[in-house]
User: Fold this.
Amino acid sequence: MDSESPKPVGNTPEWSVSDLSGALKRTLEDAFGFVRVRGEISGYRGPVGSGHVYFSLKDANAKIDAVIWKGVFGRLKTRPQEGLEVIATGKITTFAGKSSYQIIIDSIEPAGIGALMALLEERRKRLAAEGLFAEERKQLIPYLPRVIGVVTSPTGAVIRDILHRLEDRFPRHVLVWPVRVQGETSAAEVAAAIAGFNALPEGGRIPRPDVIIVARGGGSLEDLMGFNEEIVVRAAAASLIPLVSAVGHETDVTLIDHAADLRAPTPTGAAEKVVPVRAELMSLVADLARRQAGAMRRLSDRRRSDLRALARALPGPEAVLSGPRQRLDLASTRLAPALAANARKHEQKLGLAAQRLVRQSPLARLAALRARLEGYGRVLAQARNAALSAESRRIADARRRLQELEQRAAKALARGVAQRGERLPALEARLQRAFAQSLLRRRERWRSSVSLLASLGPDAVLARGYALVRDEAGALIRDPAQLRSGQALGVQVAGGRFGVVVAGGGEGLSRSTRPPRRDLPKAGQGDLF
Assistant:
């Protein structure tokens, strides 16, 4: 058989794999540049390390790979979830590395109301499990707020209804934070408005609201989706200012209604819930004032009658003083015998004290103390003699030991002196050599310093051709502007001193009029002065 490869038959062109993949890619993108695909999300695991999202869309009979790029994923209004049925909008393209086709998704929306309700129910359960809807988190609405913050669209009828209802019931200061209440950016704007009201400082230039109303008119479920977003629910739950939700009509329920401190059926109802009716409040205050005045009058009358009854029950002065007067008379009759008995009692105590004092006379106690002192003196003398004997023996022993130590120290000192005397000639030789070397180094350093000083001194500078110019007072001339015509100067050069006179017709010489130094060499060091 022939070993050469077979040649192509006919006019069929040959494709490389890359060319064929590129042609297929262009064909698919031209034919399916914009498609809407309905299917169930499968294999969703969230963004990968690069931020892109990969999953599949499937139905009962087929499956297609799907990709959401990182920039698009951050703008999605509806986040993909495993098992969620959605309608994806994008374009069909191919991936040459796997010889497969896929859809590049630009937007996602739930497939029908049922899927949207299932998504909202799942989100509601998840947020409720975190405790964002718990009743113990909710705050009380102030009875009469000074400032009311309203988060709504400034161009709709909602804000006009709220302001009109507040004007009818109880006019209050209202701050409006304008936001979009529908569209992709509405959720972020509403959350930012709630956080912005909470960030206002107490006593600042802009008053901090006492209550916040988040309001929107009625609409479809899709129109109200901005108030079901997680960012809005978390902002409402985190608000430190009491928050009233008034979104949609009475039958519309959004997730912000669960997180708010109070839900109002309509925006007008929210205005009715945050302030009382001023006329009714004034009537109630007037009625309470009348009731308080009547109660005070009745209390005063009752206390006055009670005081009169108590005054009638009080006894007269004679009845009050009769008992004490009788006790005083009785005490005066018993006073004289009691004084005599008391004097006799104290006399007996004084006799007993005199007898005890004789037994405890100072002379007797002094004799006893003198005898005890003489006994202590004898004991002290015996102790002193014994201590002196013991101390004398201890000193004799110490003197003997000291003599032995002195003999040992003398012997050791003699040995040390002999050893050092042997080392002394060697140390003296080393010292002489070190002194000679140090003297030589210092002499060389002195010669170098003298040479350096001679080269840097003023005489060396003058020897190179320079001169010092001084005026009549002996001061150095540093600037030609100091000179004047006819002035006598003294010039010092290396060989001596001489005098000169300044020539010229002006009073002084400036730098610009100084004649050039034609005698200076072109190269080398310039004039130092």
